[in-house]
TrEMBL record, chain A:
Claim: Cell membrane is one of the keywords in the record: yes
Subcellular location, record wording: Cell inner membrane
SMART domains: AAA
Protein source organism: Rhizobium straminoryzae
Domain of life of the native organism: Bacteria
Name under which the protein is recorded: sn-glycerol-3-phosphate import ATP-binding protein UgpC
TrEMBL record, chain B:
Membrane topology: Multi-pass membrane protein
Subunit structure: The complex is composed of two ATP-binding proteins (UgpC), two transmembrane proteins (UgpA and UgpE) and a solute-binding protein (UgpB).
Record-given protein name: sn-glycerol-3-phosphate transport system permease protein UgpE
GO biological process, any: transmembrane transport
Gene from which the chain derives: ugpE
Domain ABC transmembrane type-1: 78-269
Biological classification of the source: Bacteria, Pseudomonadati, Pseudomonadota, Alphaproteobacteria, Hyphomicrobiales
GO cellular component, as recorded: plasma membrane
Job of this protein: Part of the ABC transporter complex UgpBAEC involved in sn-glycerol-3-phosphate (G3P) import. Probably responsible for the translocation of the substrate across the membrane.
Subcellular location: Cell inner membrane; Cell membrane
Gene3D superfamilies documented for this protein: MetI-like (1.10.3720.10)
Entry-linked PANTHER family: ABC TRANSPORTER PERMEASE PROTEIN MG189-RELATED-RELATED, SN-GLYCEROL-3-PHOSPHATE TRANSPORT SYSTEM PERMEASE PROTEIN UGPE
From TrEMBL, chain C:
Cell inner membrane is among the record's keywords: yes
Predominant localisation class: membrane
Membrane topology designation: Multi-pass membrane protein
Protein name per Swiss-Prot or TrEMBL: sn-glycerol-3-phosphate transport system permease protein UgpA
Annotated family: Belongs to the binding-protein-dependent transport system permease family.
Binding partners and assembly: The complex is composed of two ATP-binding proteins (UgpC), two transmembrane proteins (UgpA and UgpE) and a solute-binding protein (UgpB).
Length: 366, 282, 294
């Protein structure tokens, strides 16, 4: 068991393209870290540098206190689960699981025991003698997990392991990965471009953009206090509304509407205002009103997403289906739930926090 | 078939049967001729039905016949052909798969150059460099030796390209998984690459065995010692009789025997054969 | 040229892996080829003691030698005849087999084996079939009023080697055409049938145009085959005769160099042949690139 320290790591490709730019992350022992970002943000490159599949241009990676920059992947005491599983097609499931152990000279009896244990944990015992091509996608995924588990490594590295599965299987495998990781307590780094997967799996999220870290934090911190407009629009579905407004003293103007903030605003002048769709509600008596012209409605069952405009700015609102919707709505928002970002650069203005009324995360049984 | 046209289907069958008859004619005639004695053959055109000298002719050719023309025993030549074909097959596959492995899975200075050097062999068949190649083999003292007969033939651009093409289709993650699993280059080659290449190796075996078996010009150039004669050279010697008549019944028996191994391989390993043929020419 | 995203780091190993192939290639291919180029510009004295640089003399002589020009034209005729004959037959067989769903495999087996027959054996078989005393064909031809004797008649000798060479190559063309035909989408055929075109019309208006890449590829391969791989057929049957009537370019290199020991001229001929192969290989690979793209 070991923590991972990534210190000032960069990747520069021939031709000067900087895929990863001076990234530092401290990962505690047993922590589940998810690297998330759009394609090309450098998340896979970073993971592959930790794995030793990609040379580190600058900075240092240490696993369990050992600097591993110059070590072969096999010497780093890590195991990796690949997007396309990368199972050896000519070997049986058993042989796939045993291969890494055999290469390390593990005694036969211990290999048998470890493979049996991993197979039981993943419920693939009855497939041990099959070749990978005789398995379904979900079963292959389990075998790939098994190959990582049997090694009992210091860390698991996951490179978009679920993106080849269909939506339903993805959800159940997601749960299973989380459960296994809790049970084994193995430090994990997980790469995905799917923000929902990132939110549900992570102890801490690392949001990457253009090779740099935008934000590191727990899923709720990142959701409720995004550090930049990039994070705000990337995490959460529907994406956070970003509209332009103007702060003046303790008042905010968005198009025709003016909202009293109840306290002095953290800045003055034009800002980008972030509003979560679910934070808007029909205005009650005495609340500041955002006049909202409805364009169209998406029915999701439990809620409905109403798209429309405030002034000339697009906005999406999540409303309970019980609320009747006409052509015009009067919306209101708790000023504490507004997010402000600098117009220039998109950085967050003012400290954010997980708002009162959001319960602490459910403690997972270990 | 898109629609059913019985008459056209009938014509198709008729055409193919006729085609097969024409294609098979020379072989049929050879088999027939190998069952007659020389007197019957010299007295006019070949009969269309088998004669009664089959066992006599074949036992003659397999035991003693060829000695008359200063040739070694037929089965000795057959053994030489077999050795040559097998050595060339194994040699070509071994050095090609190693070259392809180096070119695909390593990055090193002069990699491009190595690739082009191998490519150039495609443009230099033995036939266009007869004299200088003969000379170098002679200078190296490799005339009349197994080394001289086989080694110069085992460079292979086509086999190298086939393996390279195949390796490129293996997902990169296979190598990465193996590295994480602690496999070094040669372990990866032996445990992963070699087993995955099985079908391609099989297909190449079929094609290259035929290639080695039918070699003619090269053995002709580098061997003068009858001890190294192959069947193909024996065929030529049997039909170039200075005086007297060609023993056609024996020549035909010899031809039938010389054709048999590669034809059987093609028929019984048809799928590998077709795969080998169509893959290597890409 | 591409490698894998990740590669092994090893300085020495790749060179070791390549060593056998490169060694053989350099010693037995490139060095001799370079020697051929060198000696094509030189003349050796009769005792082989000294050589003098003579420039393009050997090439000039070749192109002034009617024998060489004849061999050049003859080789072209030979190559085009064998290619045309074996490709037309190969295509016809492939089109027929492609029509048959159930029995196709049987016919395929019946038609592919000649590929495995050694050229020298193919030559001997046809030579025997056309042999003027014992052969079946002269006997039949005589009934049609044709006197066949390829030992005396040069044209007949040429026809003989064309038939022998084409016979061996039909199966190769057949297999490639069949593969080409089978990759024509069935839906295209069905669409054409609905548009009212019959099987024969479909073959000429849809299958054949779609086969044009295969056809071009086979054309190059067949010309290459006829020029270089038919040496054993000639050597085992006509030995280039009668009166040089079947002396192809390759056979002439062999005669002048290996048998006649005329090093300078034979080297110049080798160099010219190399240039022909280079052009053929270049064209073939240019085309392969295109094929890979779609």
């Amino acid at each position: 068991m070991a923590g991972i320290k990534i210190a000032g790591v960069s990747k520069v490709y021939a031709g000067g393209v900087k895929a990863v730019n001076s990234v530092s992350i401290d990962i505690a022992d047993g922590e589940f870290i998810v690297l998330v970002g759009p394609s090309g943000c450098g998340k896979s490159t970073l993971l592959r540098m930790v794995a030793g599949l990609e040379a580190i241009s600058d900075g240092e990676v240490s696993i369990g206190g050992r600097v591993v920059n110059r070590m072969e992947p096999a010497e780093r005491d890590i195991a990796m689960v690949f997007q396309n599983y990368a199972l050896y097609p000519h070997m049986t499931v058993y042989q796939n699981l045993a291969y890494g152990l055999k290469n390390r000279g593990t005694p036969k009896a211990e290999i048998d025991a470890r493979v049996a244990e991993a197979a039981r944990m993943l419920e693939i015992t009855q497939y041990l003698e099959r070749k990978p091509r005789a398995l379904s996608g979900g079963q292959r995924q389990r075998v790939a997990m098994g190959r990582a588990i049997v090694r009992k490594p210091a860390a698991f590295l996951f490179d978009e392991p679920l993106s080849n599965l269909d939506a339903k299987l993805r959800v159940s495998m997601r749960g299973e990965i989380k459960r296994l990781q809790r049970r084994l307590g193995t430090t994990s780094i997980y790469v995905t471009h799917d923000q929902l997967e990132a939110m549900t799996l992570a102890d801490r999220l690392v949001v990457l953009n253009g090779g740099r870290i935008e934000q590191i934090g727990s899923p709720l911190e990142v959701y409720h206090a995004p550090a930049s407009t990039f994070v705000a629009s990337f995490i959460g579905s529907p994406a956070m509304n970003l509209v332009s407004g103007e702060l003046h003293g303790n008042r905010l103007a968005i198009g025709p509407a003016v909202i009293e903030l109840g306290a002095e605003a953290p800045a003055s002048g034009p800002v980008t205002v972030g509003i979560r769709a679910e934070d808007l509600h029909p205005a009650r008596e005495g609340e500041a009103v955002l006049p909202f012209a409805v364009d169209y409605v998406e029915e999701l069952g439990a809620q409905r997403l109403v798209h429309g405009q405030v002034g000339d700015q697009m906005l999406t609102v999540a409303l309970s289906p019980e609320i009747a919707i006409g052509e015009q709505l009067s919306l209101a928002i708790d000023p504490a739930r507004l997010h402000f970002f600098a117009v220039d650069g998109g950085k967050r203005i003012g400290k954010g926090s997980v708002p009162a009324g959001v319960a602490a995360p459910v403690v997972q049984p270990v | 078939m898109v629609e059913n046209r019985p008459f056209l289907t009938f014509l198709t069958h008729a055409f193919l049967i006729l085609g097969f008859a024409v294609v098979a004619l020379p072989v049929y005639v050879a088999i027939i001729a190998s069952t007659h004695d020389i007197a019957t053959l010299m007295s006019g055109p070949v009969p269309l039905w088998p004669g009664s000298h089959l066992i006599e002719n074949y036992s003659m050719i397999l035991t003693s016949a060829s000695a008359a023309n200063g040739l070694p025993n037929y089965s000795h030549m057959a053994l030489n052909s077999l050795i040559m074909a097998v050595v060339i097959t194994i040699g070509k596959i071994s050095i090609s798969i190693l070259s392809a492995f180096a070119i695909v899975y390593f990055r090193f200075p002069f990699r491009q150059l190595a690739f082009w050097i191998i490519f150039v062999t495609l443009m230099l068949p033995v036939e266009v460099r007869i004299m200088p190649t003969y000379k170098i083999v002679a200078d190296l003292g490799m005339l009349n030796s197994w080394a001289g007969l086989t080694i110069p033939l085992i460079a292979s651009a086509t086999a190298t390209f086939l393996f390279r093409q195949f390796f490129m289709t293996i997902p990169d993650e296979m190598l990465e998984a193996a590295r994480v699993d602690g496999a070094g280059p040669m372990k990866f080659f032996r445990d992963i690459l070699l087993p995955l290449s099985r079908t391609n190796i099989g297909a190449l075996c079929v094609i290259l065995f035929i290639y080695g078996w039918v070699q003619y010009l090269w053995p002709l150039l580098v061997t003068t010692d009858p001890g190294y004669y192959t069947l193909m050279m024996g065929m030529k010697r049997m039909v170039t009789v200075q005086d007297g008549v060609i023993q056609w019944q024996l020549v035909m028996a010899g031809s039938v025997l010389a054709m048999l191994p590669p034809i059987l391989i093609v028929i019984f390993m048809q799928r590998l054969f077709i795969r080998g043929l169509t893959e290597t020419e890409k | 040229m591409d490698t894998k995203k990740t590669t092994f780091d090893s300085r020495l190993l790749p060179y070791l892996l390549l060593a056998p192939q490169l060694f053989i290639t350099l010693v037995f291919f490139i060095w001799p080829a370079a020697q051929a180029v060198k000696s094509s510009f030189e003349r050796e004295d009769p005792f082989g003691l000294s050589t003098t640089f003579v420039g393009l003399l050997h090439y000039q002589r070749l192109f002034e030698d009617p024998n060489y020009i004849d061999a050049l034209i003859r080789t072209a005729v030979f190559a085009v005849s064998v290619t045309a004959l074996s490709m037309v037959l190969g295509l016809a067989f492939a089109a027929a087999v492609d029509r048959l769903t159930r029995t196709g495999r049987v016919y395929t087996t019946l038609l592919v084996w000649p590929y495995a027959v050694a050229p020298v054996v193919a030559g001997v078989l046809w030579w025997f079939l056309f042999n003027s005393t014992t052969g079946l064909m002269p006997f039949l031809l005589q009934k049609a009023g044709i006197r066949w004797d390829h030992d005396l008649n040069g044209t007949q000798a040429m026809i003989l080697i064309i038939i022998a060479a084409a016979w061996k190559q039909v199966s190769y063309n057949f297999l490639f055409f069949l593969a080409g035909l089978q990759s024509v989408p069935q839906s295209l055929m069905e669409a054409a049938a609905i548009d009212g075109s019959g099987p024969v019309k479909r073959f000429f208006t849809i299958s054949l145009p779609l086969l044009s890449p295969t056809t071009f590829f086979l054309f190059i391969i067949n010309v290459n085959y006829t020029m270089f791989d038919t040496f054993p057929i000639v050597d085992a049957t006509t030995v280039g005769g009668p009166a040089q009537a079947t002396t192809t370019l390759v056979y002439k290199v062999y005669q002048d160099g290996y048998l006649g020991l005329n090093l300078g001229s034979s080297s110049a001929q080798s160099v010219l042949l190399m240039m022909i192969v280079m052009v053929l290989t270049f064209v073939q690979f240019r085309y392969v690139e295109r094929r890979v793209q779609y």
